[in-house]
Design brief:
The protein is α+β, with helices and mostly antiparallel strands. Helices cover 26% and strands 30% of the residues. It has one domain: Gcn5-related N-acetyltransferase (GNAT) (Aminopeptidase), CATH 3.40.630.30.
């Protein structure tokens, strides 16, 4: 799907207590249940190694919905690609997953809003998944 992010305002939805933040390399063990829901195998060590790629970078970018109780409600990963035919970038969502017990409670919307808000200063006018 496609989302136009060149409009003013952001949706605010909060079905559960959570904080959207950048993923960290030490989140590997917390990410495993979400990665398994996407069908990806892995270990805490392999997840941490992949997360190191995302740490501190502008792109690729990964955000998580942290419940504050040593569990994550969801994650979103995205990349920016420069456009050839016009100035700016295309944002590509490469992963979005919400924990089963958090589905239908605004987590996915909050993650999409957060990654879009973080992309606006990078001249991104469209997000694709």
């Amino acid at each position: 799907g496609s989302r136009n992010i060149c409009s003013d305002g952001a949706r605010v939805t909060s079905g559960i207590a959570m904080r959207i933040r950048a993923a960290r390399p030490d989140d590997g063990a917390l990410l495993l249940p979400l990665l398994h829901e996407l069908g990806y195998p892995g270990t805490p060590e392999s997840a941490s190694a992949q997360l190191a790629i995302y740490a501190g970078g502008n792109t690729p970018r990964m955000l998580v919905a942290d419940r504050g109780d040593s569990s994550l409600a969801g994650l979103i990963a995205g990349h920016l690609m420069p456009l050839l035919h016009q100035p700016g970038n295309l944002g590509r969502i490469t992963a979005l997953v919400v924990a089963r017990d958090a589905q239908g409670r605004g987590v996915g919307t909050a993650l999409l809003d957060a990654i879009e808000a973080g992309s606006r200063h990078k001249t991104v006018c469209a997000m694709r998944s």
